[in-house]
Amino acid sequence: MTATPPAPFTLPRPVGAVLSRLPAYPGSVLLVTAINLALSHHLPQDVKDLLKDKRLSIRVRDARVAFDFTWNGQRFAPSAPQANPDLAISANAQDFVLLAQRRQDPDTLFFNRRLVMEGDTELGLVVKNALDAIDLPVLDPRHWAPRAVLSRWAPQLARQLPPLPPFFGGRS
Q1: 13-134 — its CATH code?
Q2: What is the pLDDT of residues 67-76, one digit of tens each?
Q3: d(CA 74, CA 105)
Q4: Quick check: 120 and 88 in contact, CB under 8 A?
Q5: d(Cα 115, Cα 75) in Å, to the nearest integer?
Q6: Membrane-crossing residues (predicted)?
Q7: Contacts of 58 (CB under 8 A, 6+ apart)
């Protein structure tokens, strides 16, 4: 984690107003797809057992959207919006990005009231501790850049691509 995270940023209200009108289910499908690809096989069995059939919600306050899902024993699956999930985790979009990049500590966000857990806080602490225990370079956005993914899945093809200009992250 960096010593000086960026200044807090909140999405403009009109952006949140537009995003809040989008249907929730497609966003939940996208989120669980990403979580399943990046995290599900890293979770310890005892955490998976504890998550079984729990209703979870990630709420992005400034975007005014929520992503609802469950762990079905094999994978995370999207669910219909839940009024009272077993665990709801809320923060602004920037804070979730900083957490995913491991540029901000969840405890710091929690004590600064920028990250809120509601419902089964014991479940929330178990999930937080399990995520903290996993060395996850997959949460680095550079890991998911198209060239990085291609390099992992089709290295021969990736070697045939021309180098990127410096403006796009290539070498000069």
Answers
A1: 3.30.1050.10
A2: 999 999 999 9
A3: 29
A4: no
A5: 25
A6: none
A7: 31, 66, 67, 88, 89, 90, 96
Q: CA angle, corner 133, sides to 109 and 116, nearest 5?
A: 25
Q: Where are the domains of the chain?
A: 13-134, 140-172
AA letter at 38: A
3-state secondary structure of 76: strand
Q: Which amino acid is at 168?
A: F
The total number of residues shown for the chain amounts to 172
The H or E element containing residue 90 is strand 87-91
Q: What is the pTM of this model?
A: 0.75
Structure tokens at 35: 């979580």
Q: How far apart are CA 140 and CA 24, in angstroms?
A: 25
Name every residue whose Cβ is closer than 8 Å to that of residue 100 and which is 6 or more positions away in sequence. Answer: 139, 141
